[in-house]
Amino acid sequence: MASESDAAKDGFPNGVDLTLHPTAQTLAARSLEFLKEVQNLTPGKELEKRLNRNYGPGNEYYEDFCKYIKQGLEEGWVATANIEGPTYRRGKISLPVAENLYMSLTAVYFDSQEEFSGQYHKHPYGEINCVVPIDPTFELEGLPVGENWQGAGWTSLGPGTHHYPRSRGGKGVAFFFLPSGRIAYDAKPGEPQPLSI
Ligand SMILES: [Fe+2]
Hints:
This protein is an alpha+beta fold and 197 residues long. A six-stranded antiparallel beta sheet has the order 1-2-3-12-6-9. A four-stranded antiparallel beta sheet has the order 4-11-7-8, with no helix packed on it. Strands 5-10 form a two-stranded antiparallel ribbon. It has a single domain, classed as Jelly Rolls (Sandwich). It has helices at residues 6-10, 22-38, 45-54, 60-75, and strands spanning 81-82, 88-94, 103-112, 116-117, 121-123, 127-133, 139-141, 149-150, 153-157, 161-163, 166-168, 170-179. The protein binds fe (ii) ion. Fe (ii) ion binds next to β5. Fe (ii) ion is lined by residues 121, 123, 127, 157, 163, 165.
């Protein structure tokens, strides 16, 4: 693991330096191949179903994403910034640029057996979320709240949705793509959701 380096404190606000981290470079390259396949699909329930049907465990993109994220945790460039101590951490991997079809790459690390709620947020353009269990019992929540716990596989929340990112069942990572990198922390619980989530 990385020590308390400057990089660990700032969580790589401009993304990981791919020239220093070959595994991150490989992850970014694989992500681009994947994004080329889904770039014209809108985040939301239909995409979530499609991803779980066609890109779930056993799919080579999914397996590679899990492998490189786990490797990145060991190498110390995944989710380096503590949000609430070491059990809830976040880090940008790539900002949205032409080379990734303007889809940012981010990882959030969770470690909680009990249901844990992270920072409330909204995705103006939706999100595509690869669920990477470290412990096999790890689950991340999609929407609707309380009805959609997802282990190994995917969640995808539609444009304008907002939620507490919730996890349970131990250690795991949410590795996600955001169109234009858009995420907003000014949403409030109780605000209406868009018609399509
Ligand atoms: Fe989210």
